[in-house]
Amino acid sequence: MSHDEIKKPTDITIPSTSLFAKLPMIGGVMAVIGLGATLGSAMGESRTRAMFSYLWAYEIFLGLALAAMGWLLIDHTVKSSWSIVVRRIAETIAVTLPLFVLLWIPIGTIGYHSLYPWTVELNDAILAKKRWFLSDGFFFGRAAVYFLVWTVLSWTLYSTSVKQDGTENETERGNLTRRLWTISAPGILLYGVTQSFAAIDWLMSLQPHWYSTIFGVYFFAASIQAFFALMALLSMALQNAGVAKTAITVEHFHDLGKFTFGFTVFWAYIAFSQFVLIWYANIPEETVFYMTRLEGGWNVISYALPVAHFFLPFLFLLSRNVKRSRTGLAVGACWVLVMYLVDLYWLILPNFGTHGEGHHEALFAPTWQDATALIGVGGAFIAVFGYFLNKNKVVAINDPRLPESLVHENY
Amino acid sequence: MSTVKPWGVLAQYENPADLYHACEKVRDAGYSKWDACTPFPVHGLDKAMGLKPSPLPWAVLIVGISGSAFALWFQSYSSGNLYPFIVGGKPLFSMPAFVPVWYELTVLSSCLTAFFGNWIINGLPRPHHPAFGSKAFERVTDDKFFIMVESTDPKFDAEKTEALLTETGATLVEKLEA
Prior knowledge:
The complex is a heterodimer. Chain A has one domain (about 35-405). Chain A starts with about 20 loop residues before the first helix and ends in a 5-residue tail after the last helix. Chain A is an all-alpha fold. Chain A contains 16 helices and no strands. The longest helix of chain A has about 35 residues, at about 170-200. Helix content of chain B is about 45%, strand content about 10%. Chain B is built from 5 helices and 4 strands; from the N terminus they run βαβαααβαβ. Chain B has helices spanning about 15-30, 45-50, 55-80, 95-120, 160-165; strands at about 10-15, 35, 145-150, 170-175. In chain B, helix 3 runs antiparallel to helix 4 (about 95-120). The interface of A and B includes residues 279, 280, 320, 409 and 411 of A.
């Protein structure tokens, strides 16, 4: 089939009447209410609790945006063509990354000492050896590097792709695609290092005596699995709003489903790899991570995670028919996203109250700040995402290989 | 002209589009024992040929579950009953220690089923095929597209089948000898 026969989609902008057109406003209101309530509470007596909720919500959306960027980098490096019709959605998720610089400010300021025990326990013998890494200057310096890399990379990926939309010259279009390929391969390296160290800095150092060399990969696995679920749901929602109604086909959903399924297995593999080494060696300074999570109500989640985050989505998404059915994929994707929230909650919240003043056992006790933090950070994410979604076309319409994506078929 | 009943008929097409439409016609004519050969995968050809979904996934699922169950049972039974031995102070039934083998055996049994099931379904290994007797067929790995209809097909009739294939735009139609 020659490319001339394939019609490019025309329904590629958000209709002004759809809910997507109102996202910046809805998100903005959510952000003001949610962030106001959470950070307001962080100024009061329950500062530590509110900041833990905030960190949880922050990592959820940061993880999704980072996974989007990571996938784009891999996608360009392997020169994939099936994904071109849905690629702009991922680009729009990734371009929210600069927002997370602003959202990090509360973590680096009001939450810094309440979240990270190594900033206050200055006489600790074990920490003395780690002081060169876990020190104020290096910590903030590293954060600055991560944000610089993420902002530059995500903005370049987005703006280059958007520039192609308005390019009439065929050669110039091709050059833009090649530029994306060129920056993506070294981009993967930068991305891998920064996202892994960011997970170690902001999540693993919550429990600074404990260490796990696979931790960065764990965060990557959990977030990219959730990202593909989000992609599937967003593509469906956009189609319901009248965007790319015929361009995104069951074949693209099938592929997004395959990725969600594949990374479900990957998450389990990584999670178990971390667990089995610690379980086998049985060294107290390593087992402390699981010990905290086997008491105070966390034990229920610890036992539920392998079942609900792996076995259920694995068995559910295993069938080709489920991945190719809109309802089936939507149910699976929603489930995976909920489990992502639970997984990060289980990763972060047990560290609350295990150090400093008011030292007590880590109890599973959700509070209202969890909800407001989720609404607040989520709102800010939705607002920025919605802004860029409305600003430009939803499909990378001038990608030279778009026709390949439009007629994509799975064997 | 040979008087021996041929093994089948081979038709050559110049491009995937011609082959695709020819397949639709052969399918609609009601043939069942026939095949299409191309130098590269042609999207949607399975639909044009009217192929049913492969039964292979079911075989993989059943053997995979069996392999999985066997791995769990065998490890529990051998470590728990046959040769109870305490390692590293862990209980006899130590689920985490069983997981790697459990996982590997599930994958192994599924993969072997997929690999050899594919051979069985496709009638492999098959060192010779009547189409190899055709000089034209050599270009199937290069730039030509082929359909072959076997004479064991209930609808097969050397003349009618050849006529049908010529009608569909074949640039070359020839008999294949067994």
